[in-house]
Amino acid sequence: MLSRALCGTGRQLAPALGYLGSRQKHSLPDLPYDYGALEPHINAQIMQLHHSKHHAAYVNNLNDTEEKYKEALAKGELLEAIKRDFGSFDKFKEKLTAASVGVQGSGWGWLGFNKERGHLQIAACPNQDPLQGTTGLIPLLGIDVWEHAYYLQYKNVRPDYLKAIWNVINWENVTERYMACKK
């Protein structure tokens, strides 16, 4: 399985296809001591307020900011290219989902970059056939449709898995790959 890819530029890109962008959200860490442990110098009420309200607000704001950042990255040049090449994001999503559902047996659904044409393309590859080696497309986004990727949760209902996979795509990585490959 691909864990690193080289774009035609020779620049090594971040590991990605196995990583679906399901990075855990930040959470408020527990204090290693009781709120009252600093009494009489700092009382428990102040510690509880600062930890459970103020510190928690910073953590929540960080999570919100990271989510907005990921959305903004996907809305930039990559989104414009998706609109140009597929008409809309929804049409792109429909086409990639259909290509992935249509893989007979095991394989991959792909969003690739056609360096010659400077356009995005959708492809599907059976088994472990490499996208670049079989189509010449540079891999930007791969959707694993081997049954081991979804069978325990979705059984043999691949369309349900493909509907869910859109919620965990690492658009930051797809955008990085796109930006590197179009140079």
Automatic annotation (TrEMBL):
Going by the entry's taxonomy, the superkingdom of the source organism is recorded as Eukaryota
Q: What UniProt keywords are attached to this protein's entry?
A: Metal-binding, Oxidoreductase
Pfam families per record:
Sod_Fe_C
- This entry's Enzyme Commission designation comes to 1.15.1.1
Question: Can you state which reaction this protein catalyses?
Answer: 2 superoxide + 2 H(+) = H2O2 + O2
Report the cofactors: Mn(2+)
Residues that bind Mn(2+), according to the entry?
H50, D144, H148
Q: Does the keyword Kinase apply?
A: no
List the Gene Ontology MF annotations in alphabetical order.
manganese ion binding; superoxide dismutase activity
Domain Manganese/iron superoxide dismutase C-terminal: start-end pairs: 75-177
Tagged with keyword Aminoacyl-tRNA synthetase: no
Give the multimer and partner information: Homotetramer.
| Family according to the record | Belongs to the iron/manganese superoxide dismutase family.
Question: What name does this protein carry?
Answer: superoxide dismutase
Tell me the lineage of the source organism: Eukaryota, Metazoa, Chordata, Craniata, Vertebrata
